[in-house]
Amino acid sequence: MTRILRRLALGLATVAAVYLLTFVMVMVAPGNPFANPERNMPPEVVKALEAHYSTDQPVKYFFEFLAGAARLDFGPSFQYKDWTCTQIIASALPVSLTLGFVAILLAVLIGVPVGVLSAVHRNGWLDLTTVGLVLIGISLPTFVTGSALLIAFAVFAQWFPIGGWGSLAHVPLPALTLSLPFMAYVARLTRIGMLDVLSSDFVRTGLAKGLAPRVVIWKHAFKPAFLPVLSFLGPAAAQAMTGSFVVEKVFGVPGLGQHFVDAALNLDHGLVMSTVLVFAVILVAFNTLVDVVYGLVDPRIAEVA
Fold it and tell me: What mean pLDDT is reported for the chain?
């Protein structure tokens, strides 16, 4: 419990530091969110809007926004009329969370068995093929793999819709595109962990006692070998569920990533800061969850803490 409370305190300090840095970067960024050439507002109107939203008084704006964020009220959007930042996040965040969850699930369900089989058949054709595919999965950017999957399965095969969101048919292509880099890392970490554990004394002892290799691998060796993957899954899950900017753009998914990019381009200060805060909170939450699960999987962690 002490370890978890310490992690939560550290997470709170991390979120506060992220907010401070984001606020400074937003305020020093060139441009004015109200001085939009398309709206052609008079300077008096721009100054009135700045005074109304307190953007002309950075210290006041800093604490006003922070107080609202503590109540989950991120204020109005400067660019989306009749929409608050809270409403935009509430409508887009579930889409990104769903897409990220499916992507991480695919990464684990495919990456872990592939990594285990690659380690068991070390230096065989399966291992060499897996290492090559992992290298490709890590190296290729998501906009390349996403475009290739779109052309192959949406344009030519016509198995899936080209883009959009709203039905189960819209999920597989963007989820697979988003999962490929994570899948490659999971397979790589699993392979490295299994190679290390398979050379341990307890594995050789189990095999010498006549235990089936399948039992030794999956029941005894897999648990300690999975610990590096578990450490990776915390930030990876948070990144997948909140950081799918490119994938959402390629597939036209109305997730939070698109709103964040548009908010940064349009100098929508409130939406940028609220989105970053949500990202930071989710990242801290997943890392804390991984710490809890880590202690359950490896009791030595709890003893040390």
Answer: 80
